[in-house]
Prior knowledge:
alpha/beta
Amino acid sequence: MGHPEANVEHPMGQNQSPLSCALSTVSEATNLEELRSFTNLPNLVVLNFTALWCGPCKFMKDKFAVMANQYADHSMVAVQIDIDKVPRCNQIYGVRTVPTFLLYRGGVKVAEVVGSNDGLLRATILQNL
């Protein structure tokens, strides 16, 4: 028995099936325009602010990918943002430490999880699906 594939509107105007991705359903925002496009989607969007040098971020990367795959059929959109590659994103979104997970729906922030507590992140996602 497979999961039904949910169609998620991609911020660049294409429809994509998140479960059709071979390894992960985590997208990457590489600039502020893409980041804003993701946050304005009507779906639950979980932004993972991360950095390559961050040990706790590495711990959470795989756990975040698993959650993205598990909740893709609920039309959750998972996005990773490397704070060193997207200038000013941390100031604009109020991120003071990594990893920080911001949950958005329709352009409105609905929740925030700071740190590498995967249980808290999972519970917060489930509360907002």
